[in-house]
Amino acid sequence: MAFRCAISRRLARIKGGQLARAAYPATVIALILSDVVGSPLDVIASGPTAPDPTTFADAWAVIERYGLADTLPESVTGHIRSGVGGDVPETPKPGDPVFERVQNVIVAENAHAALAALERGRELGFNTMLLSTYVEGEAREIGKVMAAIARQTAESDHPLPRPALIVSGGETTVTVRGSGKGGRNQELALA
């Protein structure tokens, strides 16, 4: 997952731990709202206050893998090439002293919301189950699975008896076909 951000971390002045570097030696307390499955600190907002495990070589590998060298602006490819050649400093890595006085605190994330929904459901008299907070994939396919779980619950009281509240979370995707704009939540619900 971190490799998705490898290019953008090389192009921004604060991503990939560079905000922590700029603030060093000050104490930094980052209050983080995560919209990323699993909440890895280096991926949330491209990790401005977290060590960056990726390198310029990783960024160049992404460019090559997806055939982007001829479609990206020369300013981007030139900067990445300069970094691969050692002419541009790398982002701070794990163990870098710039992180000694950094405290990253995730104040809200998908898992927090899911657990709160379960708690409230129990208060309201539901039998509750956390299915997963790591759901990923095409929204239309995930929607079919969720519908199958709901149908089975309604017909057989499995995977838990009614009244049932089955909670899941994550990040689905929509592959847009044609001129539509997509919409993950709507597509999942409609599927």
Write a structural description.
This protein has 191 residues and is of the alpha/beta class. It contains 7 helices and 4 strands. The strands form 2 sheets. A two-stranded parallel ribbon has the order 1-2. Helix 6 links the parallel strand 3 and strand 4. The longest helix is centred in the last third of the chain and has 18 residues.
Radius of gyration: 21 Å
Largest sheet: number of strands, sense, barrel closure: 2 strands, parallel
Structural class: alpha/beta
Please list the strands of the largest sheet in the order they lie side by side.
1-2
Q: Fraction of residues in helices?
A: 25-40%
Low-confidence stretches: none
Number of strands: 4
How big a fraction of the residues is strand? 15-25%
Query: How would the global form be characterised?
Result: flat
Mean pLDDT: 93
The quaternary structure here is: single chain
